[in-house]
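Field reference: sequence -> structure
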Amino acid sequence: YIINPLTQQLSFIAVSAQIVYIGDTANIPMVARVSLTDYRGNVVLDTLVRPTNPVTDYRTAETGLAATHLVDAPSFRQVQHRVTLLIRDKIIVGHTLWLFLSASISHPTINTRDVAAFLPFRRGLGCGSTTPPLRVLVHRLMGRSMGLGYEHPLENARAALDLYRSAEYAWERAIDAGSWPCTLPPVGYGGCFL
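Structure field:
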């Protein structure tokens, strides 16, 4: 596997989404913010998303979001369409990509790099079938803290990208050899991947 910096800058997009909750029991996730960066961490898209249903929990302590932030935001469909166009023919990098793609976005499995599912990371942490949180991966594998204050999707996208780049050579070499170095997504999320 040979790393070509120009190809990487053009073909990789790191993704992350921030959610709020809807429903009577505040347990149905709804996308409230979407962030995408290029291979170098430069912002490609960072937008709030107007909810399609009444929000019952903005998770303000974790997200910093309130109703006033989302009132004039682009609609879910507008953001979904824009994200679909931006990630088309790209390799997306992120943490728990099945959650990101569950917002009615499908993407070819071969073009996903999910740091939560990468077997060498999981083995290194000894987490077995448990999905390691991004902040734990970053702390244990890179020795840095993140998520201080509140969650930030740009920080999450960049952190996932840093983790990917730390293992890029081994990851891409395994894929080039015809092996898939990741666990499968949880049951029920298989339809997110083509």
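Note: The mean pLDDT is 86.
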